[in-house]
Amino acid sequence: MGVHHVAYATADLDATHRFYTEIMGFSLVKTVSAPTPQGGWAKHLFYATTPPGHVGSPGMIAFWDLHIPDLEPPKTAISVDLGLPDWVNHLAFDAVNEQRFAAKRDAMMNAGLEVVELDHEFCRSVYAHDPNGILVEWCLDVRPFTAAEATQAETKRLAEQPEFDDLPDLVSYQAATEPQIP
């Protein structure tokens, strides 16, 4: 069973739309607009996250554009605004293959975003922040998990203080240009 969609509030709909369509390559597939119980109104925008030509239901990310009287501007950085390090709560998307992984990394860098690449051994990841302060990741699996890893996962889950894994190799790319999306 897959995830149908994950929804977040946005403080800047235009910048969010540009980020997820132009940089991430997602497609806006549905917008629902309706009054809110608090007397205002809202738009709920759905973006398909699957690559073109995908067969079946797309996984989606959705954003709420809220217009509610007396509502403070939303705090949208899903980790930092909760007092957590920014890497804790994040969105990870499947890069599917090496070509798409490289293309997504390059798209983020070409948009002027600071990009970090990590080799986790079982997968490779590139990270950047969206206009809402949400850390987004493109992840490429490089091998399947083993039966031994599944056993070790349960052992670590039960451990008071687990053994640490090796730290991943890190590459940080500084933006060559100013960010194009606020």
UniProtKB/TrEMBL annotation:
Under SUPFAM superfamilies, the record lists: Glyoxalase/Bleomycin resistance protein/Dihydroxybiphenyl dioxygenase
The residues covered by the VOC domain are 2-141
Q: Name one GO molecular function term.
A: dioxygenase activity
Task: Give the region (Disordered) as residue ranges.
Answer: 158-182
Q: Which domain of life is it from?
A: Bacteria
Q: Which InterPro entries is this protein grouped with?
A: Extradiol_RC_dioxygenase, Glyas_Bleomycin-R_OHBP_Dase, Glyas_Fos-R_dOase_dom, VOC_core
Sorted alphabetically, which keywords does the UniProt record give? Dioxygenase, Oxidoreductase
Q: Does the keyword Protein biosynthesis apply?
A: no
Protein name from the UniProt record: Putative Glyoxalase/bleomycin resistance protein/dioxygenase
What is the scientific name of the source organism?
Candidatus Neomicrothrix parvicella RN1
